[in-house]
Structure formats: C-alpha cells, structure tokens
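Please fill in the sequence for the structure shown.

STRUCTURE ENCODING:
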C-alpha cells in the first residue's frame, strides 16, 4: 500500500517488463494472463526469459515480480523501472509536455519529438493561443532550472522514419 492506493503493479512479472527478452518454446497467448494461468501453462511449456539489464542471470522462468526485482523502484504511483527511457511523440502538446515533466521528476530519462504542427496551424490562421505557451527552448530550460529535469528534444515529423529511427538510436 502506498498512501491510500494499493500497488497496482507490485505483482506484475517479467512478462510485463520492457527489459525482458523471450527465449525458447513460448506460447504468446500467456502474455497478460493471470499468474495462476501462467504457472499452469509453464508446467507443460518451456518458457524462458533473459533480462537485458542483468544478462549475468542468464535465462530463467519469468516469475520474478516487480516487487522482488532490484531493477524496479517503488514510487508513490507503484513500481517504476529504474532509469527507464521514455520517448514522447508530440511532446510540445498539452499532454506530452506535462507527461514529460512528471516522468522526468520520477527519474525517467525523457526524450521527445514534435513537428510543431499545432503552433504552425495557429500562426497560419493569424491566431494566438489563449494561454501563452513558451517556446520549446524556453520550456526545456525551465524544466532543467526549476525541476532539475533534462529532456532531450528534436524537431521531427514522426512520418520521417529515417530521422525518427536515428533519434531513437541516439537516445
């Protein structure tokens, strides 16, 4: 229990972890099933997993919970993967920017892309935002100074697969 909320993901296992690498004779229908169902399936199916963050463990059954795994940290919102890298598409928007700040404060390595389409459309109409929105350069600077959050940003149209792919490799 954290505060008045129960930990929604404390019992999640390696099946739910982005660092998991599956190996062996895997029945993908097990993904997202309850632990009881997964254990029943594991009895007659060889299911192995490798942790990309801890390769020294080798391959093992995916039964370690987030609560038991040292790669996951307890936060007020449940367990969060330590040093998780997050890429936010549309980071300049209302939801994208607030999500970037929140995840950054929680300790995630936040990166984002945006093509500023909304800003361009507003300018083309000769209009302006009801609430003044600082430039991305100013926002990034404020996030660093006020919250201590460093966000990596690049202006990219997500339809430009080459540039988006290069940025994903970079971050």
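FILLED IN BY: designer on duty
SEQUENCE:
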């Amino acid at each position: 229990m954290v505060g008045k909320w129960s930990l929604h993901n404390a019992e999640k296992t390696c099946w739910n972890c982005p660092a998991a690498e599956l190996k062996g004779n895997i029945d993908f229908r097990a993904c997202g099933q309850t632990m009881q169902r997964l254990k029943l399936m594991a009895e007659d199916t060889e299911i192995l997993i490798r942790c990309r963050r801890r390769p020294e463990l080798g391959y093992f059954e995916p039964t370690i919970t987030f609560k038991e795994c040292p790669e996951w940290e307890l936060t007020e919102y449940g367990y969060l993967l330590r040093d998780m890298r997050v890429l936010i598409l549309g980071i300049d928007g209302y939801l994208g920017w607030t999500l970037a700040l929140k995840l950054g404060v929680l300790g995630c390595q936040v990166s984002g892309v945006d093509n500023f389409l909304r800003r361009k459309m507003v300018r083309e109409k000769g209009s302006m935002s009801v609430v003044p929105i600082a430039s991305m350069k100013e926002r990034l600077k404020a996030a660093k100074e006020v919250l201590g959050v460093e966000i990596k940003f690049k202006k990219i149209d997500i339809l430009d697969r080459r540039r988006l792919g290069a940025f994903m490799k970079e971050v």
